Amino acid sequence: MRWIILAFCSFLFWGCAHSIHVVHSNPYDQSPGKADPEMVEARSEQGVVLGFTFDTDYVDRAYNTLQAKCTKGRIEGITTQFSTSLGFFSWTNKILMRGFCYPVSKCETGNCAKKWSW
Amino acid sequence: MRFWLTLVLIMFLSSCAYVYQVQVGNIDDRESFESSPFEIKVSETGFNLEEAGEIEAALGSDSGKEVGDLLGMFQMGPRTGNPVYNERYAEDLLFLIKQKCPNGRVSGLTSVREQRRYPVISGEIVKVTGHCLRKRSS
Amino acid sequence: MKLKWLMVFTFMTVMITGCTYLESVSLTNIPEERSKVVSATREKGIIFYFNFDTDFADELSADLRSHCEGGVVSGILTKFENICYVPVFCFYSVNRVTATGYCNR
Q: Considering only CB atoms, which residues of chain C are within 8 Å of chain B?
């Protein structure tokens, strides 16, 4: 009976535990008159077995994916979350990047909006 | 008896606070803006199975430590604080910030990843404080 | 014979590679104009886990600034990694900080 409970508990808790390491947030400007932004998101993962992992390219993948979703605009208010999903002698590192994509600024003669902020 | 009960209650109800990460963003303190501060806290309960096993073993149960160790093998990996069972608790921070400042400029964002630790369980907290700036009507 | 050389080659490959772990990451607001990429890296070797200062990261901002004089660097992705050399039981590891962004003038 004890081993059945143990096996059940192991199954229950397998792959369900997670740990958030870092949450980073950025300011943005949503003052009246600004264009309504679109929320863009990028996620990437890296599976690790027995601790062997040779690069952190998954971060660059998320970075590039986020930018690809907003090619003609700037991205503000970016929140970055780095977490790990724990498992049986293995784990998955995860990156989540979310931000607001502001459309390309319209440049009228002598009244061009800045191409960057903050 | 009452003294020991009170002591146990104090021990279990008080917590230790830990900070794991702090980040401070750009600060805009210009007079032309009216600033209103806001704070957002999202949290999830973390569980320390090894500690639970150790407490059970200390209380005389032989299988407590074994169960803790066995379950610990299914939760391997880098940890900050105790593991939680809902990884999405901090994903909506961007929306929460937008709710606090829907028509202004967000400035002075400070993000803190912290933990409130109790025996066996803990509060895994992400706290974001900032200011919502609106142009002063002159 | 072939198996022996394969094992030697595998061992040598493992000896020179390390396990790379991400410690923290951050990303600042990304600008519209992304033609010019600037990057800076700083690292420090740590022996037997003895580390007495974190000064290696102090000049990172200045490095990035020097690549974009008179401009604005934004969209900065900052990664802090730890590279641990398993064959020496991680008694030698490297802390590396990399910042990559866009320069606009």
A: 21, 24, 26
A74 CB within 8 Å of a chain C CB: yes
Q: Which domain holds residue B83?
A: 12-135
Interface pTM, i.e. ipTM: 0.83
Which of A87, A88, A7, A3 lies closest to B63, judged by CA? A3
> To probe the interface with B, which of C26, C78, C80, C81 has the most B CB atoms within 10 Å?
C26
pLDDT digits (tens, 9 = 90+) for A25-55: 999 998 887 778 999 999 999 999 988 899 9
Contact call for A30 and B105, based on CB within 8 A: yes
| Residue B56 neighbours by CB distance under 10 Å | 18
Range of the domain at A42: 18-103
What is the residue extent of each domain of chain C? 19-104
Q: Hey, which chains touch A, using 3+ CB pairs under 8 Å?
A: B, C
Exposure string of B120-134, with b = 16+ CB inside 10 Å and e = fewer, is bbbbbbbbbebbbbe
| A109 within some domain | no
Number of domains in chain B: 1
Q: Are A36 and B103 in contact (CB under 8 A)?
A: no
Query: A78, C30: Cβ pair inside 8 Å?
Result: yes
The answer to whether residue B64 is domain-embedded is yes
pTM of this prediction? 0.84
User: Do the domain assignments include residue A50?
Assistant: yes
Our CA-based measurement puts residue C7 at a distance from the nearest CA of chain A, in whole angstroms, of 18
In a domain, B67, yes or no: yes
In DSSP notation, A20-70 reads: EEEEE----B--TTSPPPEEEEEEEEEEEETTB----HHHHHHHHHHHHTT
